[in-house]
């Protein structure tokens, strides 16, 4: 009887406050979109801060003035089902959430008359327009209005939001053999030339960047003469050959790449681009608790909608090295965080897998893995084709050209002659 009474009470509250009812499952459509505001406190508190996905940046209006507003251009006509507002201490006591087709005539979606700050999550909304604004009419403090985030959920043009925030990345592993362009059979100058021609936002390397022992003198003599041309735009990870340096494991790697390879004094790190969170890991030390603890904390702090990780030893591979279980615990963690993409090297071939879970079961919510070990080292044969392997290429040197948007990704394998040897399906982020 008590449970029944509680359910009736909750149902009654939802009927009494329909604007707060209903869980909206529509995607976020406002991240990174163009924003304007009636005023800003200083240039550090611009309106774009309320749409960048960060919990530490914010928009703040001029102090002591009513009314004030912030608005976002969704880029196309949209049907809006939910708006979440995350207020700073300077909140609105009364405000309206409004939508407009032209930015001039506004229709109310939600109305707050007794705001108390914190998070306001307006669900069960129904409105159509290209522009959405939060219009504050009375401040809750003596300051202005300040929002960490304005999140708008819905669909654009009656369907899936179009790709935004697009950027391209080039990636490869197993790169610099001890040869230079003066040797016509030397491959890494050719993969570097193709990588540079693509002109991506940045470059990723998946380890074994320099053979055979990754000494600093070899980095300078070989890698630097090819892939070193864009070292300042490269985000590397080490492979097992980086641990063979007589001067100490990773000594030459660290000395050559400097702070970019050790931005936090560790051989693993992360960074963001657009709506993507990239995690660079050192698979030589997956058995060390410090890196695993760091990875868990890094994922817990992530605010981006899509996740990619890269390291040297792939969990699944049809090449000579085969599957490497050292990566299994990391896959478990990434799978639990709904990661999308993993890149590896070690085996000197190209291979792509269908999305799969850490146990190798094909599943739509699984991680897509690519082996991209054709950056310049001698190729390996395909030896034992693994389940869920969709495409394998050996003997053709090349690079991965990865295309990212705010909502998904795809890639192609581009040979040194510029021809595309494989093209992936288009994937949507989990």
Radius of gyration: 25 Å
**Amino-to-carboxy terminus distance:** 40 Å
- Write the CATH fold name of the largest domain: Purple Acid Phosphatase, chain A, domain 2
Question: Main sheet?
Answer: 8 strands, antiparallel
Structural summary, described in words:
It contains 6 helices and 22 strands. It is elongated and about 70 Å long. Strands 1, 2, 3, 4, 5, 6, 7 and 8 form an 8-stranded antiparallel β-sheet that branches. With about 425 residues, it is of the alpha+beta class. The longest helix has 15 residues, at about 1-15.
Key attributes of the depicted protein:
eight-stranded antiparallel beta sheet; single chain; Purple Acid Phosphatase, chain A, domain 2; seven-stranded mixed beta sheet; Jelly Rolls; alpha+beta; 430 residues; disordered N terminus
